[in-house]
Amino acid sequence: MQVGIDMGTVAGGAPASLDIEELLATRLLVQGNSGSGKSHLLRRLLEQSAPWVQQVVIDPEGDFVTLSDKFGHVVVDGERSEAELTGIANRIRKNRVSCVLTLEGLDLEDQMRAASAFLNGLFDADREFWYPVLVVVDEAQMFAPSVAGEVSEDARKLSLGAMTNLMCRGRKRGLAGVIATQRLAKLAKNVAAEASNFLMGRTFLDIDMARAADLLGMDRRQAEMFRDLKRGSFVALGPALSRRPLPIAIGTVETSARSSSPKLMPLPDAPQDVEDLIFTPDPEEFTRPPVARRATPAPRPTTDILAELSRSVPAATVAPQETRQSQPELSAEERADRLSGVLCEVLDDPQSAYRTDSVLYQDFLVRARMRRLPGPPMSLSDFRRRAAIARSGVDAQLAASDAWATALSLSAAVSDDLQGVFLMMAKAALSGEPCPSDARIARAYGTHSARRARRLLGYFEEQGLIVVHADFSGKRIVAFPDLQAETAPGNADAPDAGEARLAAE
């Protein structure tokens, strides 16, 4: 069903129509400096599309809660635990209810954690509830920053991962991202690049004007026009809007934000005793309790928190003394075998390749505790190392060889997130298997981007770890000089068999 909503007018007074069904498939990016009318545009879009599609709004300033009065949006306060927010988001999808997640009053790091938990809850809903949802994220540069800021690295990764899932992988799950930002330069490029529709408003910085012009396919000299746009005027482009850049003026809205732009007001007449009024304290000030300002604690490493949680045992689940004593002691070999079994269970999940190591580590710790495995928990770095080795597919005979020991020592030269890809390639070389395709390398890295897979090979080659060449038929071969081994020729463009099986399921 094709539904066009009225966003305003174009030059000449003709209506500017936006195809909602096309928007659900192609996503939207809105950009404009503060005061350009971004929030007004989002409000117009939400009001016009409210009868046609379920809506979820990530609202950092609490401006969109007024939608509940006229359109029945449920207001969700972000000051909840991450588990609560994830559960609420899951039920939002299940019952097809429009909502506004208000993050007003939270500091930036708490806002990022709350938004990521809520978006992950929407993303992880069961397949039977993958109904179309318009997910609007205001001030998206806060939740998908292009560079690290003052927040902890863990919070930044969680938020950026959730936004990347929304924009890159959300379409198949019915999630259509609509993101608005003041600064394109501050928004992560892999998030912004997934949008196919654009509404560019007034902006003044050269770098933002240049990026806006590039996204709209305009000449750099035409970028100056973004300085001259009036408030509420935007340049539209995209399959849901227009095939050519089209200036539009956003129409009026039915609801209003709780906050508004400041207006000039005349100053009151100054009283005669103004100095006494200012410098004489009010007696109530001495009885009023001081405002307690919460100090922001230093972020704790994720590994410390997860290890602490794995060691703690809730009081309700503590076994009686005689039960604990009756449990047989495990030898080091038995414990290692059971830990390896738990690790295999976690990695056998077809979706595990696209989950972060932190999420998989939490799953691993929960499974280990359910099996009452004694001893200290495995650290996150050790988990990543073992997961990389397991994903490489190495068998017992090869794992016991000196060549594999050399490969493991070479893998220590790359970062944790690249070790799985490196070891998979090394295993193929040592076994004489065909060179993995771009799609297979991408899945090992946890992405769908073949371009990123080729960049990984280029990075390994720059580090002197591999040499990439081709045979006479053009098939790719990867050689490992330190291992004195190379892969058999392989088709770089071949589809990934594992991905095909996942799609079939």
UniProtKB/TrEMBL annotation:
One Pfam match: DUF87
Entry keywords, A to Z: ATP-binding, Nucleotide-binding
Domain AAA+ ATPase: 24-284
A GO MF label: ATP binding
UniProt-listed InterPro entries: AAA+_ATPase (IPR003593), ATPase_Atu1862_pred (IPR014588), HerA-like (IPR008571), HerA_central (IPR002789), P-loop_NTPase (IPR027417)
Chain intervals for the UniProt region annotation (Disordered): 313-335
SUPFAM superfamilies named among the record's database cross-references: P-loop containing nucleoside triphosphate hydrolases (SSF52540)
Compositionally biased residues, Polar residues: 320-329
Protein name stated in the entry: ATP-binding protein
Source species of the chain: Neorhizobium lilium
